[in-house]
Design goal:
The protein is α/β, with parallel strands linked by helices. The chain contains 13 helices and ten strands. It comes from Neoroseomonas eburnea.
């Protein structure tokens, strides 16, 4: 336990990851209500929307309106994602924080399904993004590797395959004199295990020892928090998570599976091990219950039902 980090950053992705996959249409006002509630918990980043084609992701059809309506706190970053140049341009026209991101998919088949581009076309798109970032003073914050642990179409992804896919993107960043501050390894469709986390993080660190690694984990097969704990043991300090366990990938091909690792469960785990998050767990639990109320069906979070231990400790 002595090697665990003293503090971690947890980035909230529930409003984007969750509402993009819900079968029912979520009212815009409810999306805004959850975003604003999450911003009051001590989270420093809330990912609000995806600027994507609404024909493919109907749950994001109101992305521009959500971005316009959400009231903002000065100490919170309100982020978004995009999959192509048009989405990036929409993001830049919005009031949200445009955090420069580069992307690649370890599974080329998934990349084609997700964005319509193979590896070569994806790299060309990343060049366009870098040109746009440079022209508009947007800092690159991460390179995200999708399907870094496995793919429901191609199967298990080896660490060497991830390194192979990641290398050209990092080389392209170097060409633009960009020092990438984080590589985010995404378990997009829920193949990761603690052993796989250890192997892949080790392989990426061996190749690029100066670039910090972050984790984007899903709980598709019930290993999400175990994988997060494995990451903590490796000294990972940046995690993506989703309020109440909202979310999942709309192109994963497993309808009804659990979504991202649950933010309040991860916060509880960290705080109980003495790892600071800066997040008010009780307020976060209220947000999780609000999220469940909004979607109208049970969500997989555990701490939202069990509660924190603070009250029990006060009563003891």
């Amino acid at each position: 336990m002595s090697d665990l980090p003293k503090r971690v950053t947890i980035r909230e992705e529930g409003p984007r990851e969750g509402f993009q996959i819900e079968a029912a249409t979520i009212p815009t006002a409810d999306k805004v209500r959850l975003i604003e509630a999450l911003a009051e918990t001590g989270l420093t980043e809330v990912q609000c929307v995806s600027f994507v084609d609404p024909r493919r992701v109907p749950g994001m059809a109101d992305a521009d309106e959500v971005a316009r309506l959400a009231r903002r706190r000065p100490d919170v970053r309100y982020s978004c994602i995009w999959l192509n140049q048009r989405g990036l341009e929409r993001a830049m026209q919005s009031s949200l924080d445009v955090l420069g991101e580069l992307q690649c998919a370890a599974s080329e088949t998934f990349g084609i399904r997700n964005s319509g581009r193979d590896a070569a076309a994806s790299l060309a798109e990343q060049r366009r993004w870098l040109e746009t970032y440079r022209a508009n003073g947007i800092a690159v914050e991460s390179v995200v590797v999708m399907t870094a642990f496995g793919c429901n179409i191609e199967g298990e992804i080896s660490p060497s395959k991830v390194v192979e896919r990641l290398a050209p993107v990092l080389s392209l960043a170097t060409e633009f004199d960009v020092k990438v501050p984080e590589v985010t390894l995404a378990d997009t469709v829920g193949w990761a295990t603690p052993r796989a986390v250890s192997r892949l993080v080790g392989a990426v660190r061996e190749r690029w020892p100066d670039i910090p690694v972050g984790l984007h984990l899903h709980d598709t097969r019930g290993t999400g928090l175990a994988n997060a704990f494995a990451g903590l043991q490796l000294g990972i300090t940046a995690f993506d998570a989703s309020c109440a366990g909202l979310g999942g990938c709309p192109f994963a091909g497993h309808k009804g599976a659990a979504g991202n690792i649950c933010t309040e469960d991860l916060v509880f785990l960290c705080e109980e091990m003495g790892i600071e998050t800066g997040i008010d767990l009780d307020r976060l639990i209220e947000c999780a219950r609000l999220a469940e109320q909004i979607v109208g069906h049970p969500l997989p979070g555990k701490v939202m039902n069990g509660g924190s231990l603070a009250g029990y400790r006060r009563a003891a």
